[in-house]
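User: Could you check the structure of this?
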Amino acid sequence: MERIPMTKKGYQTLKKELEYLKSVERPKVIKAIEEARSHGDLSENAEYDAAKERQAFIEGRVSELGYKLGNAEVIDVDDLPKDRAVFACTVVLENVETGEDVSYQLVGPEESNIEEGRISVASPLGQAIIGKKPGEEIVLNAPGGKRIYELVEIL
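Assistant: Sure, the predicted structure tokens are below.
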């Protein structure tokens, strides 16, 4: 069985989404289907088709979330080593060329969101960071060319 690494926060976020889909969205779409059925002929009923499509999406997402939560391996950041970059830690990198600092938390693919500073450990940069210690160089072959970072700090 595949284990899916997650932070506590990521696990709670998925759990809340699942609860919301089950308690709010699912009943809402059932009512929409009932209402569309009451309008008569289903063969040309766009409201019915849209509601059934929405229901299929919700049920698919409920199933997906159930699988991910059932196979989640929640990683406690307090138990992790602080001497090297590991899953769930936050790192500060310095772009060697520009001197610009960036901060990222290393998370699982389900939690990644670059705008919020969370990158997947499965991404090229995430893979390059894992196992590095402060002061070490990280070389990334990006589509725009080679980028070199220095791991400044592990938070």
